[in-house]
Amino acid sequence: MKTKIKYTNEPIEAKVVMDFLPPPEELAFREEGVKVTIALSKKSVDFFKSEASKHHTQYQRMIRKLIDTYVDSYAEPLTHRASGASQKRGAP
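User: That's the sequence. What structure does it adopt?
Assistant: C-alpha cells below.
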C-alpha cells in the first residue's frame, strides 16, 4: 500500500439495511440430541476421520451435519411426494 488514498468531498448515499441476523438466543440454540448406535463401514469412518482432521473438527459432528442436511432437503417435499404416490396408487 504505497499509494496514498485521495479523499473527495462527494455526497454520501446512505441506505437503511433491514436487520437480517438472528438474535443471539437463536444462535445459542442446540437441538435435542438422541444417542443411537450405528454400524458404519470402515471406509466411511476412515473418510470422515480424515476429512475431520483436515478441517479441525470432530468426525461425528460431520456425520451428524450430513444427516441433518439430508433430512432438511427431503423433509419438506416429502408431503408432496406422498400425495403424488397415493394418487398413482388410487388411480385406475
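Helices lie at 24-27, 42-54, 59-75, 78-90.
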